[in-house]
């Protein structure tokens, strides 16, 4: 018999090679079936030999345990945002500034396609992927390691010949969703009555930050790298060479890049890709132009908010003019009516569109839109575009009026003061009830497989589920009375409903459908209060103690629990056995736990407020005055008396770089 350790080793290497061929180079050598067979063999061996499991095994791509919260992590050095050039003249201005500052020295640019996604840093130690952090505000991002692990084009293990990267390095790049995956995802969401993602960027960001890495895995994200850093700084002398090195290491680097001698070549590159952008399988919104030499980059330096050695050339939006032939109204879960424009079909950026969302009455009024008008529509990735403005009034115009009665149930339509949306106020409106049940059962929420449109239509139309809580009273016999429902599927559905009782409190909170309380806010509420009852009893002020909960969200949560019907729903769900308490698993410690810092002077790259936040996120405290209890004084330029005091007391004085070292990601 073969040695299992050796076979596992060989399988992993083979799978890694095929992964790279398929997902990074797009040149598969074996069929999907052959790949699956290798993967199954490896999964099987690992299942029988748990002692041989490894985090960088290709089997780990499927997404492990759900994350239990959102953990913030400081970046090794600020993640940059670039200035924009909106036209040729602005790009030429940029080039002139570079030329002037370099005072006649020769220089060259590297041009790369600007992919429209979410920036993310990925950290490697000894060649092994260890952590991924979203851009966040550039200084502090969110730990998405488990989600990133599921991205097939992000290598879990790499080899490098360059000494400086062997122990540790970091890549930065863009997480994107290609058009096909995006369209598939939206089609799936339509089917399940969920709102569509507006564009691939939102879809990529939403997918990467999910609490369930398994769902991220199903979203087919891609990761393209464009920075290679050691210790938070570029470690290869030329940007172009660092791109080449990343490709050698096995990262996916966009192949459409070029070295340009001078601004004319840059402009030609921009023009070429503006014409070809629709042929790409993913969205781009421009071209990034960087000075190639890292040494020149260093001398060019930064303005207050962006590097002087790089710029993003942005393409204009994709728009078209067409006629609004009618406006239809759709009823959502909260009873909100959404007007949708029916358009004379028109091609925008290679896609034929026939509908555009109008959001609400105010939007129609703001646009001054009437049926029959010609409008400018704009696509930003999605096939459902938005109306930008009225282009020309139609010769036969008709004003849109929000119906006085619900198009589904005939109930009264009310628009409350200060609200943009008109709503059907009939809480028993079948359209609302159906949407509520679909929301409750959806994968992100209670995850009840089998409860989709067709089933919910029947359940509501037959009066079997007058409230979402009635789902928990459904029996196999009752379900079998429905059309196209056999004993087996009925049994599965009842079992799935039963299993949903194990969902933790944040999901139960999300399931209630409280306005403004999504997956993320629900986690913060659960973290802050620990139980449904504590949240229900909290005052407006107390609610705002929870992370990211402002007055608007607090008001919505507070009012929800004051409504007798909602109270009744909550009690029925409690009786059904849902999880109403929560144990936080969020780490409460950081690398600076127990340390006190004093900030003084002007730091080179960040404001004092940023530095304070960075320290606090890492578990440290910031104090206003130096004492014997101070661990470090972080001093910048023009530091004053605090610095003298620190020296007097013998407190260590450090700079911004050393602060980053103390809280270094590992
Ligand atoms: Zn209605």
Structure write-up:
There is one protein chain. With 666 residues, this protein is an alpha+beta fold. It has 5 domains: 4-62, Orthogonal Bundle (Helix Hairpins), CATH 1.10.287; 73-314, DNA ligase/mRNA capping enzyme (D-amino Acid Aminotransferase, Chain A, domain 1, 2-Layer Sandwich), CATH 3.30.470; 318-414, Nucleic acid-binding proteins (OB fold (Dihydrolipoamide Acetyltransferase, E2P), Beta Barrel); 430-576, DNA polymerase, domain 1 (Orthogonal Bundle); 596-662, 3-Layer(aba) Sandwich (Rossmann fold), CATH 3.40.50. It is 37% helix and 20% strand. The protein has 25 helices and 23 strands. Strand 20, helix 23 (608-617) and strand 21 form a beta-alpha-beta unit. The structure holds zinc ion (ZN). The site of zinc ion has 9 residues, from loops.
Topology overview:
Elements: H1 4-24, H2 32-48, E1 72-74, E2 84-85, H3 88-101, E3 109-115, E4 118-125, E5 128-134, E6 140-142, H4 145-148, H5 163-166, E7 168-177, H6 179-191, H7 200-208, H8 213-218, E8 221-230, E9 233-234, H9 239-249, E10 257-260, H10 263-276, E11 284-291, H11 294-300, E12 310-314, E13 318-331, E14 337-348, E15 351-357, H12 361-367, E16 374-379, E17 386-392, E18 413-414, E19 423-424, H13 430-441, H14 453-461, H15 476-480, H16 487-499, H17 505-511, H18 519-529, H19 532-537, H20 540-543, H21 551-562, H22 564-576, E20 596-600, H23 608-617, E21 621-623, E22 632-635, H24 641-649, E23 653-654, H25 656-662
Parallel strand pairs: 2-12, 20-21, 20-22, 22-23
Antiparallel strand pairs: 1-6, 3-10, 3-11, 4-5, 4-7, 7-8, 8-9, 11-12, 13-14, 13-16, 14-15, 16-17, 18-19
Helix pairs in contact: 1-2, 13-14, 17-18
């Amino acid at each position: 018999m073969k040695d299992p350790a050796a076979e596992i080793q060989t399988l992993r290497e083979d799978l890694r090679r095929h992964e790279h061929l398929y997902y990074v180079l797009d040149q598969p050598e074996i069929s999907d079936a052959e790949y699956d067979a290798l993967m199954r063999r490896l999964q099987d061996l690992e299942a029988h030999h748990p002692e041989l499991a490894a985090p960088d095994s290709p089997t780990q791509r499927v997404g492990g345990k759900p994350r239990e919260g959102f953990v913030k992590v400081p970046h090794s050095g600020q993640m940059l945002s670039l200035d924009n050039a909106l036209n040729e003249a602005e790009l030429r201005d940029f080039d002139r500034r570079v030329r002037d500052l370099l005072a006649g020295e020769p220089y060259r640019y590297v041009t790369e396609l600007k992919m429209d996604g979410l920036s993310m840093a990925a950290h490697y130690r000894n060649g092994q992927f260890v952590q991924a952090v979203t851009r966040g505000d550039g200084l502090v991002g969110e730990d998405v390691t488990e989600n990133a692990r599921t991205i097939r084009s992000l290598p879990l293990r790499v080899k490098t010949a360059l000494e400086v990267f062997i122990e540790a390095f970091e890549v930065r790049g863009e997480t994107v969703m290609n058009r096909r995956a995006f369209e598939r995802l939206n089609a799936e969401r339509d089917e399940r009555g969920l709102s569509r993602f507006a564009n691939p960027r939102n879809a990529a960001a939403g997918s990467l930050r999910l609490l369930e890495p398994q769902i991220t895995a199903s979203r087919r994200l891609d990761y393209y790298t464009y920075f290679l850093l050691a210790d938070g700084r570029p470690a290869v002398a030329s940007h172009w060479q660092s791109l080449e090195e990343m490709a050698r290491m096995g990262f996916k680097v966009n192949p459409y890049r070029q070295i340009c001698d001078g601004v004319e070549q840059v402009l030609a590159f921009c023009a070429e890709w503006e014409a070809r952008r629709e042929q790409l399988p993913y969205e781009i919104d421009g071209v990034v132009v960087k000075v190639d030499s890292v040494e020149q980059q260093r001398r060019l330096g930064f303005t207050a908010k962006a590097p002087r050695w790089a710029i993003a050339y942005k393409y204009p939006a994709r728009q078209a003019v067409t006629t609004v032939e009618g406006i239809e109204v759709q009823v959502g879960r909260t009873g909100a009516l959404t007007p949708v424009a029916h358009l004379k079909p028109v091609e925008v950026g290679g896609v034929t569109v026939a509908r555009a969302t109008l959001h609400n009455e105010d939007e129609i009024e703001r646009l001054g839109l009437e049926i029959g008008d010609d409008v400018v529509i704009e696509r930003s990735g999605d096939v459902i575009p938005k109306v930008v403005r009225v282009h020309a009034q139609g010769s036969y115009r008709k004003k849109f009026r929000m119906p006085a009665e619900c198009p589904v149930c005939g109930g009264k339509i009310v628009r409350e003061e200060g609200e943009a949306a008109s709503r059907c106020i009939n809480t028993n409106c079948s359209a609302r009830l159906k949407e509520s049940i679909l929301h409750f059962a959806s994968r992100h929420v209670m995850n009840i497989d089998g409860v989709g449109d067709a089933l919910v239509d029947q359940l509501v139309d037959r009066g079997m589920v007058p409230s979402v809580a009635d789902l928990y009273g459904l029996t196999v016999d009752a379900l079998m009375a429905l059309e196209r429902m056999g004993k087996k599927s009925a049994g599965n559905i009842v079992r799935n409903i039963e299993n949903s009782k194990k969902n933790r409190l944040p999901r139960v909170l999300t399931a209630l459908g409280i306005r403004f309380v999504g997956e993320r806010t629900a986690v913060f509420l659960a973290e802050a209060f620990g139980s449904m009852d504590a949240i229900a009893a909290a005052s407006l002020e107390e609610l705002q103690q929870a992370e990211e909960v402002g007055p608007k969200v607090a008001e919505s949560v507070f009012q929800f629990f004051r409504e007798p019907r909602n109270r009744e729903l909550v009690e029925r769900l409690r009786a059904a056995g849902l999880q109403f308490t929560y144990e936080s698993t969020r780490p409460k410690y950081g690398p600076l736990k127990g340390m006190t810092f004093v900030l003084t002077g002007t730091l080179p790259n960040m404001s004092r407020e940023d530095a304070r936040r960075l320290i606090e996120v890492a578990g440290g405290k910031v104090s206003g005055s130096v004492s014997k209890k101070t661990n470090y004084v972080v001093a910048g330029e023009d530091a004053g008396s605090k610095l003298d005091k620190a020296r007097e007391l013998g407190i260590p004085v450090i700079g911004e770089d050393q602060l980053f070292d103390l809280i270094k990601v590992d």
